[in-house]
What does this fold into?
Amino acid sequence: MQSYKLFDHTADIGMEIFGRTPKELFAYAAEAMLDVMIQDSGSNETSAESEMKTFSVEGRDREDLMANFLREVLYLFNGKGWVAGQCKIMECSTKRLVAQLIGEPFNKKKHSIKTEIKAVTYSGLSIEKVKPGWRARVIFDV
Amino acid sequence: MITNWCKLERLDDNRLLLPQTGGMRVPGIIYANEKIYQLLQGDESTRQVANVAHLPGIVSYSLAMPDVHWGYGFPIGGVAAFDLDSGIVSPGGVGYDINCGCRLLATNLTLADIGERLSNLTTVLYQQIPSGVGSTGAVKLSGKDQKKVLEEGARWAVKAGFGTMADLEATEDGGAMSGADPEQVSARAMERGKQQLGTLGSGNHFLEIEVVEEIFDETAARVFGLRKGQVNVMIHSGSRGLGYQICDDYLALMVKHSQKTGIDLPDRQLACSYLDSARGRNYLAAMACGANYAWANRQVLMHQTQEVFEKVLHLSPRELGMRLVYDVCHNIAKIETFNIQGKMKKLCVHRKGATRAFPAGHADVPAQYRSVGQPVLIPGDMSSGSYILVGQQKAMQETFGSACHGAGRVMSRTQATKVSQGRSIARELADQGVLVMAASKGTLREELPEAYKNVDDVVQVMHEAGIATKVAKLKSIACIKG
It folds into this structure.
């Protein structure tokens, strides 16, 4: 199953993400956001500077948790110039998750920026249980 | 007239009424003629106009300008005013790019003065003015300087040597919004702002060289210093990562506390705080910092532009005669006074993709323009150039002194990218007499001219409605994009 697809939004970018479990849904959402933003040169090898970051995020409910989680991942890039490659959700409840990201500092030789995402919006944000698993809809301000 | 979810009533040739239903506290009014109305079909913006009408303390109407399109929370092109005692302020109603705005620079030149050097001029502008995602500026700020930028805006830039006092007089709010408090800005936002002063940004931000093609209002054009054939520069940029972060921080905070405030929201992106609350006041103080950063940014961008023109064309400042016509913001919340049912009332006006359009005689219009009214700067798509309008009294009666801010998108970025496959947008624009340089081909595709409404149609609605009337049309000849 494809983990995400884009849907039309006049001003911004809409994204629909699918996962078999909530843990997978959140991990795929972060990876999908990065996929829209950054293009890798194709090499799967991690660089010498590759490092792991672990953090927890809280939210009022699943939707809020999604917004807060994605804005943390986005800040790592926009604020710290750090690009996450892989994402694993270690713990996940309705209001809290623990994420483990493997990534590296932004490197012009390795990464190129496709789209600038300014922010994760709450507009039309939804998380639903669907037949094969879970579906999230997120609109990004670009 | 039926949209996919509600019934709109035509009030006159240029206005539609969205009747008050359900939890709406006021009706909505959308400025649209039939042509623009047709483009709204299938767009979620009418629903967003209704959603804004649910917010506490909203006064008179939830408004949409003719460039309205689907945004997040508020529609883009949305205007709403709130009572200071019972009303709210919403970061989403200002937008992520706080004080995104336009700045128009006039010169003494005509196209003949530039001649074949246009290509070189555009290339050097592109090289000297940082644009594109993640670009950093020539101005590196220390923590102390950055605080000053947030407090003093364009005034800081002029003191630091980027411009003159005359520039400040031709900037909305004199280039510095009062009430700015850097203490209300997060460390994350400060961090993001450190290296981005003097950068254009990406997406729809641009720097264009434009020529005055047509004058509609001789008197106002003379007062604004515009004449046919004159070469001008239009800059569209905002508060960069610092502004985005301020919006994001306060939005998260307001969503977190929205249950406690008891405000029923049809969309979480409308999260807000009462104006008469610590959180509401803190947001306004942080927002003013974002607005000031944007004014300083556009001031530095103007200075860089002037330097490039002088260097490439071998002109002295006097010969070039570059001066600021006006600088307006179009993403902002401001405390302004309006006559509401015979009483003068201070209100918090949210303009989310809308330009202030104050009339002749208003104290907030620079003295040099007060006899005709405030210049209103309306850029169109890359191929069409821009309009300069002038604010009218009717704007004070109907739109809280506001007009449209651009052409407004009709096509999503994904759609625009799809329809432009296999085409060279730069070549198509060159055929139309516009030289384009962009950091990313993707941006050019997304910003395809047909992705926008026709700016002529949008401006005509404002003109015929008597909100802001046409002064001049400028044709783009060169464009730099992020």
Remarks:
- The beta strands of chain A are 4-8, 13-19, 38-40, 51-58, 82-92, 96-105, 111-113, 119-120, 126-130, 133-141.
- Chain A touches chain B through 34 residues (CB under 8 Å).
